[in-house]
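anyone seen this seq b4? input:
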Amino acid sequence: MITALALAGYALALTLGAPCALRRFALGDRAPRRTIALLLILSASLPLSAITGGLALGLTMLDSLSRIDPVIDNCADQLPVNDESPVAPTLGTVGIAVAALLALWICYCLAATYITAFLRARAHTAVLRLAGRPDRVLDAIVVQHDRAASYCLPGRGGRIVVTSKAIQLLTAAQLDAVLAHERAHQRGHHHLLLVLATALRRAVPRVRLVRYTDEEIRRLVEVIADDTAARTHGRIAVASALAVIGTGHVPTGMLGASNGDGALSRITRMAKPAARLKRRPSTLSALAVVASLVLPIVLAGVSIGVLIRHCPASTDNESLPAAVSGRPGGSAAAGTRFEPVD
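predicted toks r here
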């Protein structure tokens, strides 16, 4: 129960305080990869804390489960509400049921989100075979369209798509920067990050932290791709290319430079890069990622350790009754012989 309460308090603190703290102190644009890792860990720790708390509640409230380990059974008996309480079976059953249902629901959301993205990409690939024209020089598929846009299909073997209008408007340097942006998405497997964020939002849709994580990761993967393209083709080429195609349409489930959301802020970021992350903020951001991963484990371990430390010695192996021992108030002495009773 102590573990369940500790994890519940941790989850509540995250739900209420994390979004505001992240908006105020996050280093998103200067450390996008660390920010994505921090957001995913924090968001995933909410349902995982609920699952762990439910299992801990079942282990201490249900007599059949607590007796699996003598230490757990002995410590559970010392709780104010233990497995001998009339409400214990109800609490334990609810805890186990919530943990099992939540685990199954999260697995379903992950599988459904991934399968949906896979089927959407496969269907779009079939359309491109009919409507697109492979270009070996660009290593991309060119689609006739009157709007400038570019995007890439997720997954292994996903193709890059560029519209004819984009080829017409972009210079050679800008087009190379756009193609580098799309390849950065593919090499970084950014579609998997979006699948995780979308699945978490689908699993716990009303939690502000999870909603913020989904929105921020969609922005940060574009920031990472912009930075990757800028390292080889220059920030000016990326910024000017975004000014041309930044408001183009990207089909649902695809990733691309033509992502209208936040195009202006990305152009400004490329034109006026932020100062490099100093050593102290960089170290603190790395420690925040590690702490967010370790803290729930530490809370569970400390609560279990405190409980075990204060458990009295087990009283299950009591002395044999005086009538059996042959001596009042004593135990049977070694080698004592008992005569059969007629």
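The longest strand covers residues 132-135. Residues 314-338 have pLDDT under 50 and may be disordered. kinda curious what u guys think
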